[in-house]
Amino acid sequence: METGTQKTDYTPENIELLIETNRKLSEETLQLKAKASELETNLENAEKRIEWLMEQFKLNKQRTFGNKAESSKSLQLSLVFDETEESVEASEESVTIESIAYTRKKKTAGRKIDTSKLPREIVSHDLSEDQKQCDRCGKELKKFGEDRSEQLEYIPAKLKVIEHVCSKYTCRCCETIKTASKPEMPIAKSMATPSLITEVIIKKYSHHLPWYRQSKIFAQEGIDIPANTICNWYLQAGEVLEPLREALKSQLSRVNVLQADETPVKVLKDNIRGYMWCYHGCNPQNRFILFEYNDSRSGKVVSDNLKDYQGILQTDGYSGYNSLRAREDIISLGCWAHCRRKFADVVKISSKAGKAHEVMKWITKLYQIESASREQKLSFAERRKLRQEQAPIVLQKIYDLITKSSPPTKSALGKAITYALNQWKHLIKYIDYGEAEIDNNWVENQIRPFALGRKNWLFLGNERSANIAAFFYSLIQTCILNGIDSRKYLNYVLNQTGKMRRNEIDLTSLLGAVNDFV
C-alpha cells in the first residue's frame, strides 16, 4: 500500500481559480450577512409592530369594555410604590412638599332626597275617639308627639287649550272697527305657547328626546302633534331668538378666563361632518357656555370667534389653537386632564408598574393640591400662593421622568410623553393664575350632554338646525352652570319676543336676568 501526502499543484491557473473562488465566497458571505441583518431588522420591526398592535388592541378593549374612570382600583393599586425607596428620595431633596391634609366625607348608604323646594300637602292621621282610650286601664290617652314621614307623588304633565276670544267693536256712524288684542306669541299664527315651545326644547336638549318620540308622548296624552310640526316650532323659535344668540356670543370678549374645546357632529342633509365648538366663560360673575357650529375644525374658526378676546385661554393640545397661543394678548394654558388621560391609558394596559405609573403618581399629587384648595375654600390669590409653594417640586419630578425616557414614539407611552413635552410650557403656567383651573374639564363636562344627545338622535338635520341647536344648548347649559331653572328662564325669554322684535328690551339685561331664576 502506497502512503504519503498528495502534492498540491500550484499552477498559475489553479491559483487564479482559488482567488476567484475565494472572492465569490467573500461576496456570498457579505450578501448573507446583509440578508441576515435585513431579516434581523425586519424581525425587530415586526416585533415592534406586533407590540404596537397588541397595545392598540388592549387600549381599544379597555375603552370599550373597561373601567372608564382614571381612578380605577387597578390604577390606584399600581400607584403604590415602595415606601423605603420614596423616603430615600425625599431625604435627598433640599425642597420638600408640605403635607396636604383635607377631610373626605364618608359615603353613606344612600343620599337623602331634598324635597324642600316641592309643593307640600300635609295629610294628618289621628286615632279615632274609641282608640284614644288605654287598652289596659281604660283612661283617656294624651297626645305627646307626632311621627312624620314623606312620600313623593307624581302628577303627570297635561296640556290644555287656551281659547282666545277677542271682542270686536264697531261704530254705527262711521263703521270703525276695533278688536281686542291678545298676547303676542313667539311664533305668529301658531298654536304653540311659550310654555309648550319651552317644553319641547327642554325635552330635546336636556332629556335628549328626538321629535318623533315627543310626538308619540303627546299622542299618549290625547293629542296628535306631528314630529315635523314640533321641529318647525323649535326652528322658528330659534330664529326669533337670533338676536339673543348674538348677544350671548358677544360675551366672549367680556371675560378674561376662557376654556375651549370641540366635538364632531354629523349634519345629515348636507352629508358632512361638522363640529360644535364650545366656549366656557369662567369669570365668577359672568359664567356662560357658548356652542358654535361650524363645518370645519380649522384653527381659523376659533381664531375668528376669539378675534376680540384678551386673557387666559385654556385648551387641549390640538394644533388648531396654535395661532391663538402665539398672540401676545392671550395667556395659553394647557390641560392636565388630557395629559393624565394618556398616561392612565398606559397604566391600564400595563402588566407591571413602569414609567407611566410613576408619572401618574406625581400628577395625582398636583390634583391633591387642587383638592386641598377646594376643601379650604381658598380665594384665587390664596390658591395661587398654594400652587406656587407646592406644585413646582412636583412638576420638576414629572419633567425629569419624561425627559429621561425614550420609549418608541408610536407606543402609547411614547405618545403620552411626546404630548406632555410638546405642551409642557402651557401645562405648567396654571400655577401663576389662581383664577384658572388645572385642566379643561369644565368645558369637557359641558360637551358631554351634547354627546349623549347625539347618541340619541344621531345627527342634526342641516346647518340651520345645527346653529339653532347650538344656541339652545348654550342657553340650557348656561342655566345649569349657574344653578338656574332652565325651563323657567327659557319660558321667560320666549315671552319677551314681542319686546325683542320692537327693540324694547336690552338683550344684555335679558341675559343677566338668569340670576332671577336661581
Describe this structure in words.
It is a single chain. The protein has about 525 residues and is α/β, with parallel strands linked by helices. Among the domains are: about 170-330 and about 440-518, no CATH class; about 335-440, no CATH class. It is built from 18 helices and seven strands. The chain has helices at about 10-65, 75-80, 85-90, 195-205, 210-220, 225-240, 240-250, 300-305, 320-325, 335-350, 355-375, 380-405, 410-425, 440-455, 465-480, 485-495, 495-500, 505-510, and strands spanning about 170, 175-180, 255-265, 270-285, 285-295, 310-315, 330-335. Strands 5-4-3-6-7 form a five-stranded mixed beta sheet. A two-stranded antiparallel sheet has the order 1-2. Strand 3 and strand 4 form a beta hairpin. The chain is elongated, with a radius of gyration of 35 Å. The protein starts with 11 loop residues before the first helix and ends in a 6-residue tail after the last helix. About 25% of the residues are buried. The model is unreliable at about 70-105 (pLDDT under 50).
